[in-house]
Write a structure and sequence with these properties.
Blueprint: H1 2-43, H2 48-51, H3 53-78, H4 84-97, H5 102-114, H6 120-143, H7 147-171, H8 182-210, H9 214-235, H10 246-252, H11 259-262, H12 270-273, H13 314-317, H14 325-354, H15 362-387, H16 392-412, H17 416-444, H18 450-475, H19 481-518
Helix pairs in contact: 1-3, 3-8, 3-9, 4-18, 5-7, 5-18, 6-7, 6-9, 7-18, 8-9, 8-15, 8-17, 14-15, 14-16, 14-17, 14-18, 14-19, 15-17, 16-17, 16-19
Length: 519
């Protein structure tokens, strides 16, 4: 009897646990469904759901979510140190390592992506799938301390991350609804990635702690990251066919008319307005012939036929893309603020460890710096999304001027609060200027060279950050926060003056040419 009663109680307990698990599962599924519907409503605002831009936003958020798991796992297993001197050396090494993916991004991957006229959806999905497979391989390498497998896999993940960013930026104008400007669209993409990355980093840290930390915890973080990447790959199937150029979609259809075929008709007036046959600004300014074939690459079209396959000479693969003066000006403005941002991150991080602001612990000071940088990135994306700016160049110069004034004021009023303020301003500034640069590239560069130009831009962007970070590390050896902020403020002021002078010269040189052409 006693055994029968015990067995009955055990069965009842098992049924209770099973029922509770079912209820918890249903509640979790309902919560996840509501959250998914809320995210879809937010990303689909202003007509983004009708054009497919909302799907691209969700895919970008999923990509950032998975990238956060990789970053937490690698940071926890490779880059912790205790002493200031050792931390400074590892920071410099980490900075230099970040340049490595760009050695093949700008000269090779960007030009190759330019040649892809169909299948951009599968390129985006492929970068996610490959990252998931590499993430699974890294999980075993981290657990067993296999550096031979870990480092090449980590390098591959970094390259694929940049390839995704370049492809996403190139296809964004094709999915843009009329109600959204390029500045707003890029800000929304950055905001989605930032929120997803922050959330993913918090979850990854929790998983790492629960699983015991060290290599075992990092391995589980990477395994979960693999699942996230695979789920994101499936999400990419929802991307519409509009991610490919309109002329290429029309060429793939029967010549029976229809919307896609109508969009490829060439109007001779386009050559005067700077719009190519695909409807993208700047197509005629970048060597694109009518019909979308590049005259510089030797492509030919026969009457009644679509564009034929073109070979890609090796010299064209490694050639620096030609950019207009307006694009070069935007790149220089972005490089200036990016050097400033990299300088602030690394200089302030080590100054906070060497300077004693009362009896404030290092953990609180460094935590405040991290919060200021994260809040600045969030505020920058929100401001960029709310501006609806149709003059990104003006926005970039305005941000440079405001950042210069704030850095001068913080150098004069040097203290803990001024450090946090200038870090916040640097994060906001670099976010807004990067959004403006991407908008200029998407507006000015034709589809034929957009990917290679974005790859070149991302390379300059990262090199500027690394240069600023290394300068900040060197100046942190002085131990003087006032001197470092003074140098940063002076450098930013000189860069702004130089940009304004070169812009004025360019405008003055363009006036006689405009008058003569009008006659």
């Amino acid at each position: 009897m006693g055994n029968a009663g015990t067995g009955e109680r055990a069965r009842r307990a098992g049924r209770s646990v099973y029922t509770a698990s079912q209820r918890a599962g249903r509640a979790s599924a309902a919560a996840a469904g509501k959250a998914g519907r809320l995210v879809h409503r937010v990303t689909g605002a202003s007509g983004a759901g009708r054009t497919g831009f909302s799907t691209l936003l969700e895919l970008t958020a999923a990509s950032g979510f998975g990238d956060a798991f990789v970053a937490v796992a690698l940071a926890g297993s490779l880059f912790f140190s205790t002493s200031v001197a050792e931390a400074r050396g590892r920071a410099a090494f980490a900075l230099l390592i970040t340049i490595a993916p760009y050695a093949i991004l700008a000269p090779l991957i960007g030009p190759l992506l330019d040649r892809v006229k169909q299948g951009n959806k599968f390129i985006l999905m492929g970068t996610l799938l490959a990252r998931g497979l590499l993430c699974w391989g890294m999980s075993g390498a981290v657990q067993y301390n296999d550096a031979v497998t870990l480092l090449p896999a980590a390098f591959g993940v970094l390259v694929l991350q940049k390839a995704y960013v370049v492809t996403r930026a190139a296809v964004t104008p094709r999915l843009l609804p009329p109600q959204i400007t390029l500045v707003t669209a890029n800000s929304r993409s950055n905001l989605a990635a930032l929120i997803a990355t922050s959330t993913g980093a918090a979850l990854a840290l929790g998983i790492d702690k629960i699983m015991g930390g060290d290599g075992h915890g990092a391995a589980w973080v990477l395994r979960v990251g693999t699942v996230i990447y695979l789920a994101a790959t499936a999400l990419g199937l929802r991307l519409p066919d509009r991610v490919d150029p309109a002329s290429q979609r029309a060429a793939a259809e029967p010549a029976t008319g229809g919307f896609a075929a109508a969009t490829t008709r060439y109007d001779p007036a386009d050559s005067a307005t700077g719009h190519g046959p695909s409807g993208s600004p700047g197509a005629s300014r970048n060597g694109a012939a009518p019909g979308g074939a590049s005259t510089a690459t030797g492509g030919h079209r026969r009457p009644g036929q679509g564009p034929v396959a073109q070979t890609l000479p090796l010299r064209r693969v490694f050639a620096v893309p030609k950019i207009s003066p307006a694009v070069g000006e935007a790149m220089r403005a972005n490089a200036s603020i990016r050097v400033f941002y990299g300088f602030m991150i690394f200089f302030l991080a080590f100054i906070l460890r060497s300077e004693h602001f009362g009896h404030t612990p290092d953990t609180i000071k460094l935590g405040g710096l991290a919060v200021a940088i994260a809040a600045g990135g969030m505020l920058g994306t929100v401001i960029g999304s709310a501006l609806h700016s149709r003059a990104p160049t003006l926005m970039m110069f305005t941000v440079l001027g405001v950042a210069t004034v704030i850095s001068i004021a913080c150098a004069v009023l040097f203290g803990l609060w001024s450090i946090l303020v200038v870090a916040l301003a640097a994060a906001i500034s670099q976010t807004l200027v990067k959004v403006g640069l991407d908008s200029v590239l998407q507006r000015e560069i034709s589809e034929e060279t957009r990917s290679s130009t974005f790859a070149f831009s991302e390379t300059v962007h990262q090199l500027s950050l690394v240069a600023g970070g290394l300068i900040g590390l060197l100046l942190s050896l002085t131990g003087s926060g006032f001197a470092g902020l003074t140098v940063a403020a002076a450098g930013l002021a000189l860069a702004l003056c130089w940009l304004l002078i070169t812009r004025r010269r360019r405008i003055l040189r363009a006036r006689p040419a405009a008058v003569s052409s009008a006659r």
